Amino acid sequence: MDDPPEGAGTPRDRAGQLASRRHEMQMQLQDVERELAALRRSREGAADDDEHDPDGVPLSEQWSRLEGLRLARLEALAGIDDATERRARGEDGVCRSCGNLIAPARLAVRPEVTTCIDCAP
Question: Where do the ZnF regions (dksA C4-type) fall (predicted)?
Fold first, then answer.
């Protein structure tokens, strides 16, 4: 498996895809972490009841949403790192379930995927 899967582009293209996706996720993670920090600052010293705030979404709901986004970005980064390791081992673009090639279009959209479209959950 030293050669890239047919139609998947050159190894350099895949490396670029993975690096670009990683950078994108890191920027999104930083944005979410900034929002969480701002939310923390807004709650410092506050003792009011945010669950009954008539003016908007409860802060606990905002916190929960942002924490979910943060965890999703961290999972995406881990997936991208795994894909980079698979690429280094020459296992790039091969479905972990069936062993067939993953469609180049699928890899272009989500470079970290580990399954072909037929085996995707």
Answer: 95-119
